């Protein structure tokens, strides 16, 4: 068994003071840092949007943040501008350890497609390359932590389970946006996909 810790989007933008802040998002940082010691590999993901990204409400005239629009690949929630490449909002939380990271997987870089999952963009087919990296390293078991539970963590966990990894989400080391029941739905979807919710 070879394991990896996947740390999803522990960035300023999702922590208090950030543009898409998750309540208490920064509280999980010390626990994540400590957990890194228990894994063969540590991977960080970073939401990394170009200016004017199509997931931003500001890119659609008259649209409000947290409303839903129809994209070529299906419904897409529109967000406040967040994690724009090169801004402080997109940087990792300053307390997050990065020294043990084997790789940083950036996502949401394609202007036309959002990317919640660390494995595929929201069209569910364009890969990020993470699957290949993990397989090349011989990784079989994944633990996911980070932000946000009901979006990027859940989408990543479900894709990982479908790809055949044994997947655990440490819920105590995640934080949720919880938009219209999205957290309860995400938990159900993860459990149905065979993800262990710890
Ligand atoms: C995320 C919404 C938009 C996340 C990223 O990290 O969960 N959510 N971009
Ligand atoms: Zn984003």
Would you mind describing this structure in some detail?
One of its GO terms (molecular function) is metal ion binding. Pfam families: Isochorismatase. Belongs to the isochorismatase family. Keywords: Hydrolase, Metal-binding, Pyridine nucleotide biosynthesis. Helix 3 (149-162) runs parallel beside helix 4 (182-192). The chain has helices at residues 29-35, 130-136, 149-162, 182-192, and strands at residues 3-8, 41-47, 68-71, 74-77, 101-107, 141-147, 166-175, 196-197. The longest helix is centred in the last third of the chain and has 14 residues, at 149-162. It has one domain: Isochorismatase-like (Rossmann fold). It contains 4 helices and 8 strands, in the order βαββββαβαβαβ. Strand 7 (166-175), helix 4 (182-192) and strand 8 (196-197) form a beta-alpha-beta unit. It has 198 residues and is α/β, with parallel strands linked by helices. A 6-stranded parallel sheet has the order 5-2-1-6-7-8. The protein binds pyrazine-2-carboxylic acid and zinc ion. Residues 47, 49, 55, 82-83, 108 line the site of zinc ion.
Furnish the topology, listing elements before pairings:
Blueprint (H helix, E strand, L loop, with lengths): L2 E6 L20 H7 L5 E7 L20 E4 L2 E4 L23 E7 L22 H7 L4 E7 L1 H14 L3 E10 L6 H11 L3 E2 L1
Helix pairs in contact: 3-4
Bound molecules: pyrazine-2-carboxylic acid (VGL) and zinc ion (ZN).
